[in-house]
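Cross-posting from the chemistry board since nobody answered there.

I work mostly on the small-molecule side, so proteins are not my area. We synthesized zinc ion and want a rough idea of how it might sit in this target. Sequence and SMILES are below. Is it possible to get a predicted 3D structure of the two together?
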Amino acid sequence: MKGKEESRVDWKMETLPHSKQMDSSSCGVLVLKFAKHYLMSGEVTRVLSTPEAIGLQRTEIACELLEHQSNADDYCVVCSMLEADPESSMIEMVQCEFCLRWAHFGCAQYESSLVKYLCDKCA
Ligand SMILES: [Zn+2]
Ligand SMILES: [Zn+2]
């Protein structure tokens, strides 16, 4: 039981100084920006919550998502993972004829390379 005691963590609750949400729809934007700022600098005081600042932050988040969008195309359209089995060095995937996204053979229940594949969303 000694090991269990050593791994115990005592959480400490703390409220950092921060801007208050000024509307009923910007909580998602603020949570993302608070998390990013906290991880980068350990504080969140520079995250602004004025309507103008929230608008800019929404655009920044959208641009960041679009920038990294291509990475998502490599992931299996069924299980959303890159490798179904991390132990397996050979990953066999099949491409949807319509949306061009990829799916693991297993996830797609794909049997023959002679058959065209359509993912569940396109079928
Ligand atoms: Zn999969
Ligand atoms: Zn598809």
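Reply from a structural biologist on the board:
Welcome over. Reading the output above for you: The mean pLDDT is 86. The pocket of zinc ion (ligand 2) is lined by residues 96, 98-99, 101, 118-119, 121-122 (CB under 6 Å). Happy to explain the token format if needed.
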